Amino acid sequence: MSPRLSELDFRVARQRLEAKPKSAGPKLCTVEDAVARIHDGDHVALGGILFSRTPLALIRGMLRRRPKHLTISRNLMCYEGEWCMVAGAVDRVVTSWMGIGLPWGLSRIMREYAESGRIPVEEWSHLALGLRYRAAAMGVPFLPSLTMIGSDLMRLSESETVTCPYTGETLHAVPALFPDVALIHVHRADRFGNCQIDGYRHMDADIALAAATVLVTAEQIVSEDEIRRHPDRTVIPGFVIDALVHAPYGAYPHECYGLYDSEPDHFTEYVAGIRDGGPDGAARYLNRYVYDPATHADYLALFPEARRADAARRARELVS
Amino acid sequence: MSSTGGVTDNELLAVMGARQLRDHQTVFTGVGAPMMAAVLAQRLHAPRLTMVIEGGIVGPQWRPGWLPISTNEMRTAYRAQMLPGITDAFLLAQRGFLDIGFIGGAQIDRFGNVNTSFIGPVARPKVRLPGSGGANDIASLCREVIILTAHEPRRFSDAVDFVTSPGWLRGGDSRRRSGLLFGGVARVVTTLGILGFEPVSRRMRLEALHPGVTVEAVRAHTAFDLAVADRVETTTPPSDDELQILRELDPERRFIG
Questions:
Q1: Domain range holding A35?
Q2: Is A215 a residue whose pLDDT tops 70?
Q3: I need a surface site. Which of A84, B112, B134, B202 has the fewest CB within 10 A?
C-alpha cells in the first residue's frame, strides 16, 4: 500500500489545519469519545518511544473499536505494533525498528507478517523518520539531511535527493509525514489541553504539530494556574489538541518518566505467550488486556496495586 | 557465551572498544557492549568522554547494577546533563559534534557496510530483522564509526543482502560520491581481533589479533577474502582492573555475559 497524498502533501495538510478549529476551550472527554475520531484507513502516529510513554490507553481504546486499514507509524515500534497486526487493524507499518529490546530477541509477530508480505514494514532511519515529523511540524514538504544517503534504505523508501542550491552537494530530501491522527501520552495538562512532559520528550511535540487530529491522555489534569506558573514546561499548546483524557498509568506497563518504571517481567510473559502460541498467543493477550477490560480502570485492575506502587517507587529512585 | 581465559566475548568487546576511545571525545553509543565500552573508558583513561544516546540523552552517569536495556528508558537518562529529544540528539551528530559512533550488526561486508534489516530478498525476506533504528544515522553522521561485533562467518559475509548502515559502500571513493560527505567506518573490533580499512581501496584488513588468535582463524571466520596488514599487532589482554570495573557495573552479568 503506498502512502496517501494527505500524508505527503504539505499544501493539503495546511488546508486541513486551516479548516479546523483551534479552540482554547475545554477538551476533556473519555477514551471512547477520543478514539471515535479515528477512522478506517487513517494514518495514526504513536507518541512515546519503544516502551517509554507509549499512549497505551488510547491504543487499547482504538483497537476495541476494531478499526481496519490503518497505517501506524512510530520510530521504535514496540508490541503495540504487533497488536495492530494481530488485530487485523493495519495495512502498513512505518518505523525505523521493531521489537521490544535485546533481552526479548526478534519480534516473531513482525517476522510472520512482514516475511509473508501480508503487512509491509516500511523502514526509515531513526533520524529520517524524526525529520519527517519535524518537516510536517514545520509545515514544509521536506528537510534536507545527510542521513540515509547511499544506503539501501533510500531505494526501499523511494526517497529522493535534492541538489543544494548554494553548494551543489547532494542531500536527502526527507519527505514530510503528515499523520491523520496523533496519539500522545503526557505527564500533565490543564482541561484546555496545554500539555507538559517531564524528562525526555521523545518526538511527541513534532508528532502533535504534524497531525491533523491530536488525541492526548494525561497522567494528571491540573489547574490553568498550575500551567501558567510553569509555561516553560508546556511542550504542546492547547489549541493543537482535539481531545484530552485523564488516564493515570496511561502508558503502563510501559514507563512514564519519574512516575513509574516499565515492567520487563510483563513483556517476558507476553513474549512467552507468543513463543508457545504464535499469533494466537498474542490474540489471547489482546482478549485479556485489550478487549475484555471495558474501561481504563478495569484494565488497571488486572495489575495488583502493590506492583504498580513498586514501579512508581523505582521511577522515583531513577530520577532522584 | 564462549570465553577466552575466563573473559566473555562481551567483556573482550567492551575492553577493546574502550581502548579505542580518547579523553575529551564525544561518542554516540547504543546499549550492550558499546555502552560498557564507553563507561569503561570513562572510568579509566577518558573521564571527560561524553556519551550521547539516541533516546535524546546527553552525558548520563549510569548507575552500577542499573544499566539500561534500551536506549530510551529512565535508566539510560540517569544523571544526564541534558535531554534534548531524539531528533535533536541525532542532529548533534549531523552538525559534526560526535567524534565516534558505535554500532553492532547482524551482517557486515568487506567495505564495512552493515545489514540489520533483511536476510534474503527484500520482498520476501528469509528473516525480517528489527531494522536500522539509529544505526544508519550513526554510520552516516559521526566523524568515525567503530563496529563492535562477535566474529562469526555468518556475520562477516561475502555480500550483505541489504545496506542498512553505510560503510565505505562499494569501496574507493564511492561513499563520498554517493553524497555522504563525512565520516566512515574506521575500525571493526571483534572477538578475534581489530580490523581497519586499506586507505585507498577501503577493503577491510586485519590489523591486530587478540592473544592466542591466528590469522588463519580470522580468515576461517570471515566469508570474504580478508586483507592483512603488513604488520599485525597483538592486543594486550583485558587487565584485572578493566574486568573488575565491568563486573562492578554489571554485577548480575546481564550485559557482559
A1: 5-141+176-257
A2: yes
A3: B202
The residues pairing with A260 across neighbouring beta strands, listed in sequence order, are A256
Chain B, 50 to 79: residues with Cβ < 8 Å from chain A are 54-57, 66, 69-70, 72-75, 77-78
CB atoms within 10 A of CB A222: 18
pLDDT digits (tens, 9 = 90+) for A180-194: 999 999 999 999 999
ipTM (interface predicted TM): 0.96
DSSP-derived 3-state class of residue B239: coil
Q: pLDDT tens digits, residue range A133-165?
A: 999 999 999 999 999 999 999 999 989 999 999
Indicate yes or no: CB of A199 within 8 angstroms of CB of B94.
no
Asked whether residue A283 is domain-assigned, the answer is no
Chain A residues closer than 8 Å to B124 by CB: 115-117
Cβ contact (<8 Å) for A52 and B72?
Answer: yes
| Cβ within 8 Å, pair A97-B122 | no
Flag whether A251 is in a domain: yes
Give me the mean pLDDT over the A32-58 stretch: 98
